Amino acid sequence: MGKVLLLRNHEIQGLMPLSQYIEAVEQGYREIGLGRGSNFPRHNVWIQGDPGESVNGGHLKPDTKGSLKFKAALLPGLGGAGLQAYTAGLGSGLQTYMFLFDTHSGELAAIMEVLYYDWLKTGATAAVAAKYLAPPDSSVVALFGTGRHARSQLYALCQVRPIQRVQAYSRDATRRAEFCQAMSKALKIDVVPMHSPEEALQDADIVTTITTSAVPVFDGQCLPEKPLHINAMGAHYPWAREIDAHVLLHSRIVLDEWEQGFAEQGDLLIPLEQGRLQAADVHGDLGAVVAGRVPGRDAGCQWTLFLSGGTGIEDVAVATKLYESAQEKGIGTTFAFNQPYTFEV
What we know:
Elements: E1 3-7, H1 9-12, H2 18-33, E2 38-48, E3 64-75, E4 80-88, E5 95-102, E6 108-113, H3 115-133, E7 140-144, H4 148-160, E8 165-169, H5 173-187, E9 190-193, H6 197-201, E10 206-209, E11 228-232, H7 245-249, E12 251-255, H8 258-264, H9 266-273, E13 282-285, H10 286-290, E14 303-307, H11 312-329, E15 333-336
Parallel strand pairs: 1-6, 7-8, 7-10, 8-9, 10-11, 11-14, 12-13, 12-14
Antiparallel strand pairs: 1-15, 2-3, 3-4, 4-5, 5-6
Helix pairs in contact: 2-3, 2-11, 3-4, 3-11
């Protein structure tokens, strides 16, 4: 019977370069786009709280204390299937784990801590979207949010586009300045703090939002009138949105995954409920774009918009490659699981 590999965050760090995260995410979405895999959209099990109570700055449902979440995918072409389960707003905060199965044997292959690789996986997903949707010569990024995930967004974008300047805005001026100083040194490009959203958007080729805001973080009418791409990578609840309706009405909209996007992406659902947008206005999802079933950017396209909430596709694709790398390098702890057992009445 099988041996199961346990991988902790500190063991996952350094297992693969960021370029391999990007390749894994791209492969995962291609498999889905070609109909060779399937995705199970994120589900939330809410724990009720006091009416009107707000948790985590409004990132959770207003009348809840927290939730258990799970999402999954089956990618036989990559050799992996998995379930990611995690909590939010409970006790010590976010706790998240991946249960990875080998699709060749059907056995449980690994249990992984997720927080470290999720950081790079999210950046890798943005890079894949930018590879297919952003203008090829994109060099200026308008960045909204300066937290941990904002760092991986920049690292990843620099892998797929010739980024030279980042114009960063967040509400905390001190944190913004510290972030820009650190990222300028790390990336060896100009990462500049901006005093307003409008200032951050000037001359942008790529706009990245990576916040927990429940309301739009910039006025869409302030976007430059030129070809550009927007990666909306932050809040993904039906009542929350980082992007306003003006942007959606004037963009080629690409979801991360069709069913999940229509289930939870407030950026999309709010204008749909208001009657300002129709489902037919959505161009497609990332799998279809990567697989070549629908076009990404073309000459007649000015603004493209990628709405991302994070899918099991990305998790399983990356986890499968991490597992393979760990096996090759002898990283992690192996333990026996699913031993033979005789049932007696």
